[in-house]
Amino acid sequence: MNGKAPAHGKAPKHPQAAPAAVFGAVLVGLMLLALGAAAIQWMVVRQDWASGPAVLDRLVDAIDGSRVADWGLLAGIPMALIGLWLLFVALKPRRRTHERISDDLDAWLTPGALCALAETAAEDVPGVLQATGSLRRKTALTVRVATEPDVQPESVIEQVRAEVSSRVAELTTRTVDVRPTKASR
Fold this sequence. Notes:
The protein has 185 residues and is α+β, with helices and mostly antiparallel strands. The chain has 2 domains: 22-91, no CATH class; 110-180, Cation efflux protein, cytoplasmic domain (Alpha-Beta Plaits, 2-Layer Sandwich). It contains 5 helices and 5 strands. The chain has helices at residues 22-46, 55-63, 70-91, 111-123, 153-168, and strands at 99-100, 108-109, 128-136, 140-147, 175-180. α4 crosses α5 (153-168). The longest helix is centred in the N-terminal third of the chain and has 25 residues, at 22-46.
């Protein structure tokens, strides 16, 4: 692949995280597998291929003639809420995991890689002891800079902003925000 956008005019899909409904889907799938195993066991016992009581027969006998107890309503409310939550999770859009580098390239960058690039650029400035990058939604790239003890942070901030901006200018449209901080030990 040459990295260029497709010629047919459609932009490629944005890289996304796994759907949030995966946990619920796996849980429902396991419950259906258990039900299928019980049905197979019931069929095997009914065909006299094996002896012993069928699990489904015991379950039906246990609930035969039962009435709804008071706790049934109390148990039904959380079950309904869990069902609504699973419905919400199933319909929720997937989270985006990368941001596009350029409109004419099919290239993507993770937020962690962008932060690492900003940290490296800031630490290349003389007087910077340590730098930490973070992202704020889709607006800014924040770099927290700790300077060496004999250097005033204010004197280095503009140099760090210029260095980081020059290195990430081709990769993102985020504004670069540089803040002084104390070095971690």
